[in-house]
Amino acid sequence: MKKYGEKLLEEMIGPNAKFHDGQWEAIENALNNKRTLVIQKTGWGKSIVYFLASKLIKEKRGGVTILVSPLLSLMRNQIESAEKIGIRALTINSENEDEWESIEDSIIKGTCEIILISPERLANKDFIDRVIPMIKDGINMIVVDEAHCISDWGHDFRPNYSRIVDVIRVLPPSVPIIATTATANKRVEKDIKAQLGDNLLTIRGPLMRESLKIQVIKLPKQSERMAWLIENLNKIDGSGIIYCSTTRDCNKISEFLKSNGINALPYHSNLSKDNHENKKLREEREKLLINNEVKILVSTVALGMGFDKGDLSFVMHFQMPGNIIRYYQEIGRAGRKLDNAYAILLVGNEDRDISEYFIENAFPKREQLETVLNLIENSEMGLSVYDLKKYVNMTQSGIKKCISLLDLNKIIAKYGTKYIRTLNPYNYDNFKVEEVLKTRYRELQLMDQYVDTKTCYMKFLANELDDDTDDKCGRCSNCTGKEFFSCKVRIEDVLKAESFIKNRIIKMKVNKQWPAGVIDEKAKKIPLEEQNEIGRVLADYGDSGYGIMIEEDKYKNKYFRDELVDATIELINNKWDELDKIDCVAAVPSLKRSELVKSFAKRVAEKLKVDFIDVIIKPKETEQQKTMENSNMQAKNAYNAFLVTDDIHYENVLLIDDMVDSGWTLTVCGAMLKKKGAIKVYPYALASTAKNGGDE
Q1: Confidence class of residue 10 from pLDDT cuts 50, 70 and 90?
Q2: Is 335 strand, coil or helix?
Q3: Is 666 exposed, middle or buried (0-12, 13-18, 19+ CB in 10 A)?
Q4: Is CATH 3.90.1150.10 the classification given to domain 214-503?
Q5: Which of the residues 25, 271, 329, 359 has an alpha carbon 20 to 30 A from that of 52?
Q6: Which SMART domains does this one have (predicted)?
Q7: Is-contact 89 116, C-beta < 8 A?
Q8: Nearest 5°: phi and psi at 135?
Q9: Dmax (CA) of the chain
Q10: pLDDT tens by residue, 378-419
């Protein structure tokens, strides 16, 4: 059997390919109906194990392998790899809904070897109750990729991974299981065993990555790191990934690199939104990188676990990640089939704030869980996520996390689109949220220690993942005692980056629909005659250049300086193609800082030589818009906050506010101005606080 396995391996990898230590052992365990946890470094070949095992088991006794994978990019890579040895692998995901019926038919008939699903698919009652039991010859193996996600202590909070355990419990003990990960320390390994059974065999290998040259470079300002990139990226042959912590930065950095002749594209989950064409973008960009047709993808964590390109020559981080495990996994994308590859960590002033924000928002707070639970409990017919957005001030993502945890612990149950309360008792302590949060903050502290360590970077990473090696890599900048790249940047390149940030065009989206609960119980389209035009934003809040000025002026100086007025006039005259001639200027009022925006808007009007119209009032104090968490609450809060006092006798109004995120304040004020006679309203804000950047 092993010889046949080696033949398949050669077909998949190439002539003279040999199994790594532990690969055939894991395959043989599966053929003998055993359960195995494979903990091996990135690039070791974990996917080879479950592909070959799946093919051999299918040939031996039929059936279909269920492979649970966390990311679409991972699924696409795996399907392409599987085809090389004649494995038919299918996936059900949010991007191929038109194919679900035919895919389900193939699964039921057993005409495929593997079905790849996300952990969220396990929450689909119809799939579990109808499709799975009808598979010809049944499930022949379960593969759990990125198995650390099963654990409460794994770095990636995916509560639906826990549903795998429910599926496994109802399977015959003869069904083999392969669980794989590159990032399980001993505590996570113990927790996985508790979930999958004490008879779980572990194959653990060394985690040192011999090809990586690691360096840490501290550059506090974003403009300094941007300058560093354009000075150094072309010194590296081949292609790579730059990781950013936010979508906004992915868009900005890729745009800056492109403007300096470096072939870069952004990659993030927003590329999959809105329409069918956008959904293709992520897959197209993955292929461009795999084929070396783009030098760099500037990515969020969306291009993470499982992305497989053996000749990636570098992975860089524009900000420090929030934990060691994720960082190890991401740099592990580089140098899998190269003798030399770079892992460069750029450290900035904003890094810790971003990491703490993500930690605090990864888990529902106790009061949020109980608010959602009480609303569901007190509803007559149950509530959907759509319903809850009307009643609870939480992001849609936050609401879904509450629902997921409550559903997972059987405190609520789903019927159709709605959730109802079950008879099971609720105990917040069972969710272990506080314990996991403490672990997250400890992981963040470890990243701080890593950045400042004077010892071997790779040894530090391996030891934290419970690889007790005493060996140093001998390749990182600490081991060699020399910098691969200079830690200094030229002032002219910093100024170039700051000029780019200042002059970057940031468009403001047009809100076209009132969310449910604002003017009606159901969502209603905003009439075209009440919609704003496409707006503009001067800067991203807190960015080098104008972003820092705006932050200082709003909270410290309490007066927006004349330089911001001049920058606004420059934007209006030279960077706003859709703009008709402005007839007047209006300002969004504030009861707390009544003159801040108004005085700025008056000075803009004077420079434009048009009238300032003081017609928008705020009759009563409402909650700060920045405290509103979802579009329903944002729109409702703004809709109840403003009035326009007089008829408007001007056609084109420039409507000014200092900050914009969701845009609902400007949407509401614009609609009111148009109802009073304005023909076109052009919204303008000094700074955007939106993390998605608002553009691509």
Answers
A1: confident
A2: coil
A3: buried
A4: no
A5: 329
A6: DEXDc, HELICc
A7: yes
A8: -65, 130
A9: 86
A10: 998 999 998 999 889 888 888 998 998 899 889 999 988 899
